[in-house]
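Give me C-alpha cells for this 379-residue protein.
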Amino acid sequence: MKRGWLWWTAGAGVALAALALWWWPQATPVKLVAVGRGDVLVTLVNTRAGTIKSCQRAGLSLPGGGVVEQIAVKAGDRVARGDLLLTLWSEDIRADLSRARAQQALGKTQREERCSEATYYEREAQRLATLLAKNLTSRTLAEQAQNLAHTRRYICRASRQQERVDEALVAQVEARLAERRLQAPFAGVVAEVNSKLGEYMTPSPPGVAMPPVIDLIDDHCLYVSAPIDEVDAARLKVGQSARVLLDAMPGRDFAATVTRIAPYVKELEKQARTVEVEAALTALPTDVPLLIGYSADLEVEVTRATDELRMAASSRADDGSVLRLEGDKLVRVLPRWGVENWNWIEVAEGLAAGDQLAAQPGQIVGEGPFSAATEPVDE
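Here you go.
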C-alpha cells in the first residue's frame, strides 16, 4: 500500500512538471548588437560619376602654317619643360635671320666708327676753343670745329638708334623662327601626336577649333572633378578632406582635398541640378598609374565624431526608438541622437556602452520573453 502511494506521488510530480513546462513560454532568440565607442563619419558623395583630370593639360599647336620638318616625340614620351616637340620648314626665315644679323653687325661697326669720329671732333673743338681764348686761332676756325663736332655727335646718336632698330629686326625674325618650333611649356607625358612628317600643317581659322598637333599632360598633378547635388552644396568647404574611389581599382581609395567649389549650379536636367566640385589627390600611388579620364567617385568628409558612443544604424526603428534587452524583456527606449551615416549613429544620451539592442527592431513580434541569439551580430 505504501509502495503504491509512492508510485502515485512520483507520477503526479512528473505530470505537474510536464504541465508547467508546456505552459511556461519559451524565450525567443533575438539578434543583438552592442552599443560601443568609435568614429562616426558624415560624408557627401557625387550624384554622377566624376572624372580624373590633370592640373595641366595643353593641346599644343603652332600659330602659323607650314610643312612639318621634324617630329621629335611620339605618344607616351616624357618631356621636360622647354624640350623640342616639333618643327616646321623654315629655311626662308633662317635666311632672313642671317641677313638681319649681318645688318646688325654692319650697323654696330658703323656706329663704333661714327661715334669714334664724334669723340675726335669734340676734342678738336675743345682744343680750338682753348686756343681762341688765348687769341691763338681765329673765331671762324673755332666755330667751324664746334659745328662739325655737333654734326658728328648727331650722326653718332643716329647710329645708336639705327643699331637698336637692327636689334629689334633680329628679335622679330628670331620670333618668327621660334613660331616654327613647338616646345613643351611644362614637363609631362605626350598623350597624342596629330601630325606626320612632311605634311602641311594648317593653322586654325579664327573661331574654329582644330585638333591640337600635340596633346601634353602633366600626370604628376591630378584631381577629381565630380558633380554634387545642389542640396548638399552649402555643406561643402574648400580644404575638406575627401577620398577618391575608382571603378578601375575596386577596394582601394585615395586621399584628396577639396580645392574648388563651382560658384554656380549646373542644370543638366530640371530634376538634376548639381555643383561641380574639384578635389586634388594628395598622394599618387606608386604601384599603379592613375590614368586621365578614369571614372571616379568623390566622398567628401563633412563631419566626424571621434571616439563617441555609437550604435549600428539598423538598430533604430522608424520612430527613432531602439529596443534594449533588459532581462528577458525588450524595452523601448528613445535616445537623443548625434551625427549619423548609413552605418553608424552617434548616441548623445539615453544609452550606455555595452547595452544590447535588437539588431532589427522592425522584425520583432510579440512581447517576449526574449534571449540573445546564439550567433550575436558584431558591432
